[in-house]
Structure formats: C-alpha cells, structure tokens
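Regression test attached.
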Amino acid sequence: MGITKTDLFTEEQNAIAQMAKVLGHPARVAILQYLVKSNTCINGDLVQELGLAQATVSQHLRELKEVGFIQGTIEGVSVCYCINPEKWAEFSQLFGEFFENYFVAQKSNCC
Amino acid sequence: MGITKTDLFTEEQNAIAQMAKVLGHPARVAILQYLVKSNTCINGDLVQELGLAQATVSQHLRELKEVGFIQGTIEGVSVCYCINPEKWAEFSQLFGEFFENYFVAQKSNCC
DNA sequence: TTCATTCATCGTAATATTGCAATGTAATAA
DNA sequence: TTATTACATTGCAATATTACGATGAATGAA
C-alpha cells in the first residue's frame, strides 16, 4: 500500500518518526549543519554548498520548514533562513529522552 | 531520479541520515520503545502489540537490525530480539552531538 | 517600463517505501 | 514421519520520495 498507518501509534511515536524522517536525508542534515555553523543563509548559498539543483534545495528547505526545524524570512529579493531555536530545543529533548530511556531502564543484557 | 546523491555529502551526514531514516517510521519507533521497556521480545509479541501483519513487522525488524539498532538470536523455534547496547550508545551520542552543536555555536538569533 | 535576480511551485521520471498474502524454512512436538 | 509453530522472504499494488527542468511570482535595478 505504501501509506503509513499512523493511527496505530501514539502521538509521541508519530512525532519522533516525523522529525526523524526529515533528518533522514543527508542534504537536509547538511543544510542544518551549515545553518548551525553560519547562523543564516539563503537558498543560493546552499545550492553552491550542496551541489544540488535550486529546485531540489528549495524542496528540502520546505520540508525542514514544515516540521519547524528552520524558519525563513523574506529579505528583499532573497529569503533568509535560520534555525528555529524553540523547535530545535524541543526536538533535541524529544530525541534525548528517547535514547535516554534505554540507559535508565537497562536490565540484564539481551538474549 | 528518486535516488539520493550520497556522494555529495560527508560520511557523518550520511550516517546521521541513515539512522534517522530508520527512526522515520512510527512502527520502528514503537518497536524500539517496546524493547526498551520489555528488554527482549519476539516477532509475535510485536504483531500483537502493533497491529501490523507478521510480514510487515518482520520487515521493520530487518531494517532495525541492518543499521544495528537491534540484534536477534535464534532461540528454538522463535527469534529473540533486543537492543544492541553499543550501537544504541553510538547513535545516542551522534544525535546528541548533532543537536548540541547548535547550543554551543548559538549566536545572534536569526533573520 | 523592462530586465535581472531569487526563490517557490509544477510537472515528470526514476526509484524507494509501506503493507500484506502467499510461500518457504527451520525447529520442535506428536 | 507428519504436523505445528515462529519467522523470513518473495512478489505485488499503492503510495511516497528524490531530483530537476521549466515556469511563475516578487523584488529591486536600470
């Protein structure tokens, strides 16, 4: 079928999956790392940096924006992108807790 | 096209993306959370727990196993799955650093 | 106004993912 | 041996993703 059965899972599980899915492409990871380093950038910078077509970069930026990782503001003829601090903190915590739960609960090791 | 151009990105970026991609489905998140809670489980447990067909669960388990999140050992007629502690720690750190880099580098806020 | 720049969106081709029924395989039970 | 149980694998249909050329919209410059 190709369609994910989100109704079978908790909101948290779907939220984690949605975020992870967006991180699940190296171009989007690269965009975020570039933004962390440079604070802001415009689409054109990333086209140079990544070596992907402008339309492709624009599409990745949209996905990052849709889940909230980044925000963009129109600045004259270009669009200035940067990381959304609140969302970044929220995602960081969500992932952090997800991984941490294992270390907290860790019991006898495996089968 | 439909094929990711991994050669454009660093090994770290591809590694993060690969891990994130596997976490990018709520069923796989649910499986990991279930394993964190119960320490071990077999395929049949998850079919009950998730409400997906046996073949589908098996496929998700394979993906989790391929990147190293979990390991499975044959135990008589069934297969016992559990979290791979080393990989879990590795992934936890990789994600942790990815998010932490922002808090360390944080400058003037955005555009 | 006209042109150039910057970016988003549309349309499309290639490929990947999701989900399941059907079937295959291996181990144990009868 | 035959049957059963527990999974994996195969094959397929539906859908999603990736990438890009072409085009559209908005801004600023000439």
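Expected vs. actual: identical. The two ends of chain B are 34 Å apart (CA to CA).
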